[in-house]
């Protein structure tokens, strides 16, 4: 389902723009549209995390792994 009032992402948007978009609209997935508003694809929170976290993040334990989540 696509909300026509929600601004779309474009293929040219950089990582900071996409991250702010997700934070602003509290999304887990966002559409990527071309100039004619044709759907090209989607970006997910997982896509963002893949680019924001270091490549080896799965190989290390979080520093507070022994602390309960709040």
From TrEMBL:
One of its GO terms (cellular component) is membrane. GO terms for molecular function: magnesium ion transmembrane transporter activity. Pfam families: CBS. Residues 1-60 form the CBS domain. Keywords: CBS domain. InterPro entries: CBS_dom (IPR000644), CBS_dom_sf (IPR046342), MgtE_transporter (IPR006669). It comes from the Bacteria. Gene3D superfamilies: CBS-domain. SUPFAM superfamilies: CBS-domain pair. The keyword Nucleotide-binding does not apply. This is CBS domain-containing protein.
């Amino acid at each position: 389902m696509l909300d026509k009032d929600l601004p779309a992402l474009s293929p040219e948007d950089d990582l900071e723009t996409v991250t702010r978009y997700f934070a602003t609209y509290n999304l887990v997935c966002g559409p990527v549209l071309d100039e004619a508003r044709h759907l090209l694809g989607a970006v997910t929170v997982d896509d963002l995390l893949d680019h924001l976290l270091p490549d080896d993040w799965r190989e290390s334990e979080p520093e507070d792994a022994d602390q309960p989540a709040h």
